[in-house]
Design goal:
Number of domains: 1
Order of helices and strands: HHHHHHHHHHH
Strand content: under 5%
Distance between the termini: 44 Å
Length: 221
């Protein structure tokens, strides 16, 4: 049961954060003038890079936490605050901000290969998705759990690749208002995920055996 919960939790947490539908206008902008074959190639490479980045942080999450002396509850609280902040900003996106600014778009167009940057990072695997992945690394108890999280990442990558491949059709069908509505829905889901991460972190701090012993010893004196 824990295996399937991790897969579902990874998908629910990452999909609104990566938001493939919202990434499609930016992808069309930075690949303007490219052939459909070139766009498919860039989309595939970008999604593979995204998987590589997130899996690297997932596997190296424990090392990173130990190196910086971070606790699991602290990581969950910090990641939850970051994710909740991103979700809240998606609920009321700034007017006129539909994609990268002119300088970002021009720089991306000038690059021969946009699959790693700006597509994979920071468009698809930015600070928020990395923070969520680090948070899920704290939930993994063994190789099977890591495998479940990786399967969730691969599923999200598959959805993202499909959305990027169909980006032209999606933008035409959904339109600007549809994109705005979907962004707000995903922002709300992301806000809920972030709040739950914070709740889990606070509960972890409150039920820490060392803290409970300290309170008991204080009350006993």
């Amino acid at each position: 049961m824990h295996f399937w919960e991790l897969i579902l939790g990874t998908v629910i947490a990452l999909l609104p954060l990566i938001n493939p539908l919202a990434a499609t206008p930016a992808f069309l902008a930075i690949t303007e003038g490219d052939s459909e074959e070139r766009r498919r190639e860039q989309a595939l490479k970008g999604c593979l890079y995204m998987v590589g980045i997130l899996v690297a942080f997932l596997i190296g999450g424990t090392f990173i936490m130990n190196f910086f002396g971070l606790s699991l509850p602290g990581m969950r609280i910090a990641g939850g605050l970051l994710v909740a902040g991103i979700g809240a900003s998606m609920l009321s996106p700034p007017a006129g901000r539909a994609g990268p600014d002119d300088r970002e778009t021009a720089a991306a167009r000038a690059k021969r290969d946009i699959s790693f940057t700006p597509l994979a990072m920071p468009t698809l695997s930015g600070p928020g998705s990395i923070a969520v992945t680090l948070g899920f690394s704290s939930l993994a108890r063994g190789p099977l759990d890591y495998g479940a999280i990786i399967l969730g990442i691969l599923f999200v990558a598959g959805v993202t690749y499909t959305a990027l491949r169909l980006s032209g059709r999606i933008v035409k069908v959904i339109g600007v208002n549809g994109m705005s509505a979907l962004t707000r829905i995903m922002g709300f889901l992301l806000l809920c995920v972030g709040v739950q991460f914070v709740v889990n972190g606070v509960l972890g701090v409150a039920t820490d055996p060392a803290l409970l012993r300290s309170i008991r010893d204080t009350l006993a004196t």
